[in-house]
Design goal:
Blueprint (H helix, E strand, L loop, with lengths): L16 H13 L5 E3 L3 H16 L9 E3 L6 H9 L7
Helix pairs in contact: 1-2, 2-3
Length: 90
């Protein structure tokens, strides 16, 4: 989704989407509390998708997946955040 104030821009990823997805799941399964820095619609969507997949098959209530610098959320982004147990964003 392009930015509302700049329709030509969607941001960019510093890591390939599949690599991020795989690493989030791997580290979460190994007991790490995963923290990802993401700004923008595209980045949030990718990270939240990886978080949902990580939580799908792992039951580790003491660990939290953390999305840093949450900005420019869409209403659709709030649903996976609440399902993942997210409580605060900054």
């Amino acid at each position: 989704m392009p930015y509302s104030d700049n329709p030509e821009e969607m941001g960019f990823m510093r890591v390939e989407e599949q690599l991020l997805h795989d690493v989030v799941i791997q580290y979460f399964r190994e007991g790490w509390q995963v923290n990802v820095h993401a700004i923008g619609y595209c980045a949030h969507n990718v990270v939240l998708g990886a978080f949902e997949d990580a939580l799908r098959n792992v039951n580790v209530p003491s660990l939290r997946l953390r999305l840093e610098y949450v900005q420019m959320l869409t209403p659709e982004d709030v649903i996976p955040i609440s399902r993942s147990g997210g409580t605060s964003f900054g």
